[in-house]
């Protein structure tokens, strides 16, 4: 039985056993209540919160396994009615009195937004509605939201045209830009937490531009490279034309996201190597670099600063940006890069050799293999691509 089958049985078992049914929240005790009353209420709250986080963890792993297996998710992420979990400070309170004090200072559980409501607000046409989402959503909650968007991206690309009811590519891109702005402006996330969330965001954007798992398989197939990372064994791949792909503006955008993933992954503390999304994000970035290098585009001039609003929202095939009356310099450089006309080094741009960047990512995957065995297989595939580039 595959890991996905085990995971699917785990989700159905959780539903059968009532794990998805959170108990009603008990009234918050006061400081004047007896120690026994406060302790029982605290332990009940912790148990309920632990149950909630376990379920949300299943949602995240559901998305990760779906990415590697190529199969749909078991859970319907966009209809997730669970509330967001508590903040870490309250969850890690060491005494009942500290817990009560922190809860009195913050919003109680009943006012926490449900994930399905957050998705609905994110996709609402009026950008003002997004402001109704609290500005203190935790990194854990953001990971659940991003996993929901990733599942939606996968569903939108599963068949052509997209299934009925699935938002268009432009609508998904608009929501991705809203999430990016939310993460960057969050007053409650640390710099490391923002980078962790944005790294996952860039990986979701990569898949919104092209299926990175299928791209990896198609890069391996014509060179006879064995890979058991995505979708199990070998598959027949036809109509492979990397040169056609790298000439598109979509391919240029993938390079921007891949470059940022490499930068962020290289700068994350070692303690965050356990993040389940990290190996897949690094390998997706390496796949993007390899696709260009194997097609003969080995040296590329990159912008040193990217206007991500342009990179995400510029309509495919557009030659100019109408988002602002006075475009910034980084906007013009980003536009030129997407058009494929950024060819010389200079202020705001840098020349990079993709073979060197691939070697750097191979070493990064080797370091991740201490936590994730799949990174060893990823490293072997990247090493094979590097040898073909040479």
Task: Put the structure in a nutshell.
The chain is an all-alpha fold.
Q: How does this structure look, described?
A:
The protein has 390 residues and is mainly α. It has helices at residues 3-16, 35-69, 88-91, 96-105, 115-123, 139-158, 169-185, 191-209, 212-220, 242-246, 249-267, 278-294, 308-313, 329-339, 354-368, 374-389, and strands at 299-303, 349-353. A two-stranded antiparallel sheet has the order 1-2. Helix 6 (139-158) runs antiparallel to helix 7. 35% of the residues are buried. It comes from Polyplosphaeria fusca.
Count of discrete alpha- or pi-helical segments spanning 4 or more residues: 16
Global Rg: 22 Å
Gap between N and C termini: 39 Å
Helicity level:
55-70%
Order of helices and strands: HHHHHHHHHHHHEHHEHH
Largest sheet strand order: 1-2
Contiguous low-pLDDT stretches (5 residues minimum) are 1-7
Main sheet attributes: strand count, strand direction, barrel closure: 2 strands, antiparallel
Label the overall shape.
globular
Number of strands: 2
Give the mean pLDDT.
85
Class by alpha and beta content: mainly alpha
Q: Which strand-content bin applies to the residues?
A: under 5%
Q: Secondary-structure map with pairings?
A:
Blueprint lengths: L2 H14 L18 H35 L18 H4 L4 H10 L9 H9 L15 H20 L10 H17 L5 H19 L2 H9 L21 H5 L2 H19 L10 H17 L4 E5 L4 H6 L15 H11 L9 E5 H15 L5 H16 L1
Antiparallel strand pairs: 1-2
Helix pairs in contact: 1-2, 2-4, 2-6, 6-7, 6-8, 7-8, 8-11, 8-12, 9-12, 11-12, 12-15, 12-16, 15-16
Main location: nucleus
Keywords: Metal-binding, Nucleus, Repeat, Zinc, Zinc-finger
InterPro entries: VerF-like
């Amino acid at each position: 039985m595959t890991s996905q089958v085990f995971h699917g049985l785990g989700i159905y078992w959780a539903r059968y056993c009532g794990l998805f049914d959170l108990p009603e929240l008990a009234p918050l005790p006061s400081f004047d209540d007896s120690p026994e009353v406060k302790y029982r209420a605290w332990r009940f709250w912790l148990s309920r919160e632990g149950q909630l986080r376990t379920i949300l963890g299943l949602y995240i792993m559901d998305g990760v396994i779906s990415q590697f297996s190529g199969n749909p998710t078991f859970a319907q992420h966009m209809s997730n009615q669970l509330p967001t979990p508590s903040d870490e400070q309250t969850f890690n309170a060491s005494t009942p009195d500290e817990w009560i004090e922190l809860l009195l200072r913050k919003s109680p559980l009943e006012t926490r937004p449900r994930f399905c409501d957050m998705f609905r607000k994110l996709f609402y046409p009026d950008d003002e509605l997004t402001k109704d989402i609290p500005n203190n959503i935790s990194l854990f909650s953001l990971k659940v939201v991003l996993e929901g968007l990733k599942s939606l991206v996968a569903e939108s690309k599963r068949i052509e045209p997209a299934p009925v009811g699935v938002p268009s590519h432009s609508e998904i891109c608009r929501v991705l830009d809203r999430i990016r702005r939310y993460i960057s402006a969050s007053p409650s996330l640390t710099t490391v937490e923002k980078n962790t969330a944005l790294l996952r965001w860039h990986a979701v954007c990569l898949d919104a531009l092209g299926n990175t798992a299928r791209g990896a398989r198609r890069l391996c197939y014509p060179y006879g490279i064995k890979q058991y990372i995505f979708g199990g064994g070998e598959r027949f791949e036809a109509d492979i034309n990397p040169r056609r792909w790298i000439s598109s503006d979509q391919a240029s955008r993938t390079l921007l996201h891949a470059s940022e993933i490499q930068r962020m992954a290289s700068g994350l503390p070692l303690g965050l190597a356990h993040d389940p999304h990290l190996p897949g994000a690094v390998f997706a970035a390496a796949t993007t670099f390899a696709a260009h290098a194997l097609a003969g585009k080995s040296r590329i001039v990159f912008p040193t600063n990217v206007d991500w609003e342009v990179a995400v929202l510029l309509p495919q095939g557009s030659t100019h940006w109408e988002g602002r009356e006075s475009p910034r310099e980084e906007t013009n450089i980003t536009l030129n890069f997407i058009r494929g006309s950024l060819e010389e080094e200079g202020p705001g741009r840098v020349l990079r050799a993709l073979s060197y960047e691939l070697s750097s990512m191979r070493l990064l995957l080797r370091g991740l293999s201490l936590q994730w065995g799949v990174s060893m297989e990823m490293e072997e595939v990247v090493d094979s691509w590097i040898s073909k580039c040479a």
